[in-house]
Amino acid sequence: MDAQGRGRADDVDPADQWVLNPNTGEYELRLAPSAAQSSVPGPRGPGDRGPTGAGGAARARRTEPARRTEPARRSGAAASGGEATSSRRRTSAPADAAAGRRGRRPAPKKGKGKKVLMWTGGSLAFVLIGTSAAAYLYYQHLNNNITSVSDDGAGTGGFSKDRAINILLIGTDKRTGKGNEGYGDKDSAGHADTTLVLHVSKDRTNATVMSIPRDLITDIPDCPTTQEDGSEKVIPGKQRTRFNNSLGQEERTPSCTMRTITELTGLKMDHFMVADFNAVKTLSSAVGGVKVCLAKDIKDPDSKLDLPKGEHTIEGEEALAFVRTRHSVGFGGDLSRIELQQQFLSSMMRSLKSNDTLTSPPKMLKLAEAGTEALTVDSRISTIKKLADLGAELGKFDTKNLTFATVPVVDNPAEKIKATVVLKEPQAQQLFAMVRDDVSLTAVKQEKKKEKAAEAARLKGTKAPASEVRVRILNGGAVAGSAQETLSWLQVQEGVTKSENAGNAEQPLAKTTLEYGPDEADQARRLAEIMGLSGAALKPGKSVTNSQGVPAMTLTLGKDFEGAGVPLTTPAKVPDDVQKATADKVECAK
User: Taking the model in full, what pTM does it have?
Assistant: First the structure.
């Protein structure tokens, strides 16, 4: 049974059980008496979901017929804070459902019965409903749908509402699920075939999705990994290998892909979400089809996509064929396929933001069902409540401020027959720096423009000679020895002789800062020029007294400091040759 068929009783779609109450004018969940207990499986006990590359094995266990009549073990229940219930409580489910039908339970209130969670990864987006008394059983059912594995300490420990959010989105080519046996090697453990990093800004006005080419040559670090028996095993790292080997191969789990992303970009991930081929099929159908545009006829025997030029609404197998095709678009490689996937995801995001979706309870329920069945998430967001809280944050930005960008790469110069790629420098590092520093790839609020203008103004004006710059250097989170290294570099190579090492800062800082007094602006501008500091790093404040008893500025080297002479300026705009597009625009595959 595939993802579309699980979680239903007597072939009744749960979405069709959400009906309009003519007395209240609102929607209520109606469960037939004969199907009340079987249509919404009871909660399962802890412990079943061991680490798997895409949750395929765990999902396969969940579909066995025996699991419908007895509790199955699962990790998500423990993580949900005691949502697992005893068999005695489950037997009361029909009575509770009947009570709801008799009107003893209140109907869902408008605006509180649903929360939208939208995200992209391997062609994914889903909507989760919140809960009300009448929807309690279905809420529990959705909780039981969720497959989770540990992040093995590779993440931050969880997203926060007062900072930027980074989500790792992985589409695996593992051939699990009904109808997927014919796609390539059905016995493969799977790879990180499609990888995206979703960064949502701290103020939630904008977001960036970076696509990581699967054939990028990079280093995979050692990966501590939780085994099914609870023990930990360190999977050895691998140097100079394809990025897609960070998942599935040599028993690597999504946490290893998280570590590889951090090593590559400097970004620490908050969470991950993984999907297999069925996710594309079920979610595209649940949203009512995804509109795509072709600039030419495409007939690809490998992906089985056969569509004429023009606009189409695709779902199911056809949607999967669309995101898998590559030989018939662009240059016929993985980079061309990435552009096609970004077009597909942009269209899906527009559909999810539309009133046709948000005002349709049946469609919302279908998306909730498909989304929770299709994904494997990290155990820190393995409940509907946690996913809904995350969704509330991810749904705040406008699609016009959601930018898709592909990490800049060039053909691997070490190969005669070009099969892999390497980072294109310095463009790749500039893109990584912009995302790390929460710089929007699109123009958003006027306030941000004013802020950027103020930062730029700090760098304009007269600059004191290097010999007159007085500064005390503190290490506030940089590598040990950085303050002394910087002191030597400034004095010997740059002529900043009135500088001194002041030891360690009282508190670590994420970013390097230069605090200066009212009469030291010209000195601050000169030091910023020498060190490659951005206007944001300059902090008007007060002077300190140095060892000579005279006023001086304070330079605190933060965690972002990469060495003496390495500029810390964040680019103001994306390099011209970085491929990017915003989600609000319709693009046609060429």
Answer: 0.66
